[in-house]
């Protein structure tokens, strides 16, 4: 177990870079959706550049980080197999599975946008973008607080954070619409 802290450090590094990809990819989706409403040649230039940026982020940062974070997590579980008996770890693993579902859905949206198939509004993508934030909060609190946190605390915390994020997104939408009216 002399290398446990090295494996844990690598796991955390790749979790951080994975989340960086999950935070920024939907932001690129928002820009792509909004660029699609512009007139040529601006639209064409922006969409081409955003596709390149999105592809590089997704395939060179987000996917490799997800895979490496998972490999190092499994390695940690092999080093400390008793963790699977802990309720906090089973809950955390459940949220990691949900995080992968979020990742796969984000991948589906990525593929659609690469083909210029726009099935979502930029406002929807702003809300979608906050999904990673909710997962990050839950998973980090579970990993740090372990059994000191209850299901009720997790539920109430996620609910409160979700409400705050929703209110902020709505507030930003109002601000943005008001700003657009002033610019016209």
Structural features:
184 residues, 0% strand, 6 helices, mainly alpha
Describe this structure in words.
This protein has 184 residues and is an all-alpha fold. It has one domain (4-183). The chain has helices spanning 4-35, 42-79, 87-114, 122-129, 131-145, 151-183. The longest helix is centred in the first third of the chain and has 38 residues, at 42-79.
Element pattern in H and E: HHHHHH
What's the structural domain tally? 1
Enumerate how many helices there are, as a single number. 6
**Structural class by SSE content:** mainly alpha
Largest sheet geometry? none
General form: globular
What is the β-strand count? Answer: 0
Please bin the fraction of helical residues.
Answer: over 70%
- Separation of termini? 64 Å
Uncertain stretches of 5 or more adjacent residues = none
Question: How much β-strand is present in the residues?
Answer: under 5%
Task: Look at the structure and give the mean pLDDT.
Answer: 92
Rg measurement, Å: 19 Å
